[in-house]
Design brief:
Family: Belongs to the class I-like SAM-binding methyltransferase superfamily. gTMT family.
Radius of gyration: 18 Å
Protein name: Methyltransferase domain-containing protein
Number of helices: 12
Keywords: Methyltransferase, S-adenosyl-L-methionine, Transferase
GO molecular function: S-adenosylmethionine-dependent methyltransferase activity
CATH superfamily: Vaccinia Virus protein VP39
Strand order of the largest sheet: 3-2-1-4-5-7-6
Structural class: alpha/beta
Helix content: 40-55%
CATH architecture: 3-Layer(aba) Sandwich
Strand content: 15-25%
Number of strands: 7
Largest sheet: 7 strands, mixed
Number of domains: 1
Order of helices and strands: HHEHEHEEHEHHEHHHHHE
Pfam families: Methyltransf_11
CATH topology: Rossmann fold
């Protein structure tokens, strides 16, 4: 990961995570609004529903719980703590943001889970863990930040125990191997704006992720596209960003966070156009 990108991502989340928690809570990811995107549900509950639906979809359940989980791109520990509490397992979260790691550690202590949960500042492309350490690799909306997608999934494979499972959800662009063809110049420009605002190197299609996962050695692979189920999230975020509390928080968080808020419609329009996709993969080692 280049030092400039590393710094940009760290500074973005150092600045914005406190505001996100204040307005949205501990889960820094999409919500799930039903298969057809028509559930009318509280915004924070929708984010929990996404976690539970991913576990159900990937056949990761309480009857065969993981014992040692890594949450790659953990934010302030929302998924990490949810999984640790649900399964009674040990869990480790990694993030590039010291602010996020510190807050996640504080939240684990507040929840009484700090004996089995820890958070570290670490690069997902060079994870500081031995081979075959975890029986569940959880990556919820962190793949889009990775400048080397193949190296990232190879690292996930390396730290996963034989027989362990990966659950991976990430932002993608539409498929280019169908009648729609290659990305248009307008679509490329749209994506570049998203990259600039949210500190992303690039995104790829779900089929490209599938090919990488197979190349890494993953088996029993299942993939899906949940774009319709999560797309309403961005309109809800936009509505919440215009409250007095949010506006005051944006001013205090600084220009980069303000810019991100002003650009929320980039994601909403991306889903509307079919350009942005929400891709899922689960597989075993």
């Amino acid at each position: 990961m280049s030092s400039n990108l590393y710094q940009d991502i760290r500074e973005f989340y150092d600045a914005s995570s406190g505001l996100w928690e204040q307005i949205w809570g501990e889960h820094m990811h999409h919500g799930y609004y039903g298969k057809n995107g028509n559930y009318k549900i509280d915004r924070r509950q929708a984010q929990i529903e996404l976690i539970e639906e991913l576990l159900l979809w990937s056949d990761c359940h309480i009857n065969n719980p993981p014992e040692n989980v890594i949450d790659v791109g953990c934010g302030i520990g929302g998924s990490t703590l949810h999984l640790a509490e649900k399964f009674g397992c040990n869990a480790t979260g990694i993030t590039l943001s010291p602010v996020q790691a510190s807050r996640a550690t504080e939240r684990a202590r507040e929840a009484g889970l700090d004996s089995g949960v820890r958070f570290e500042v670490a690069n997902a492309l060079e994870m500081p863990f031995a081979n075959d350490t975890f029986d569940l690799v959880w990556s919820l909306e962190s793949g889009e930040h990775m400048p080397d997608k193949a190296k990232f999934l190879a690292e996930c494979y390396r730290v996963l125990k034989p027989g362990g499972k990966i659950i991976f959800a990430t932002w993608c662009h539409r498929e280019t191997n169908s009648w729609a063809g290659d990305l248009t110049s307008r679509e490329i420009a749209h994506l570049k704006e998203i990259y600039r605002v949210y500190c992303l190197p690039y995104v790829i299609s779900l089929s490209e992720y599938r090919a990488i996962a197979y190349e890494c050695g993953f088996t029993d692979l299942k993939a899906d596209d949940w774009s319709t189920a999560v797309a309403p999230f961005w309109d809800v975020v936009i509505d919440s960003a215009i409250t007095p509390q949010a506006v005051i928080g944006l001013v205090q968080a600084g220009w980069q966070t303000i810019q991100g808020a002003l650009s929320l419609n980039l994601m909403s329009r991306g889903y509307d156009r079919g350009l942005i996709r929400f891709g899922l993969i689960t597989a075993t080692k």
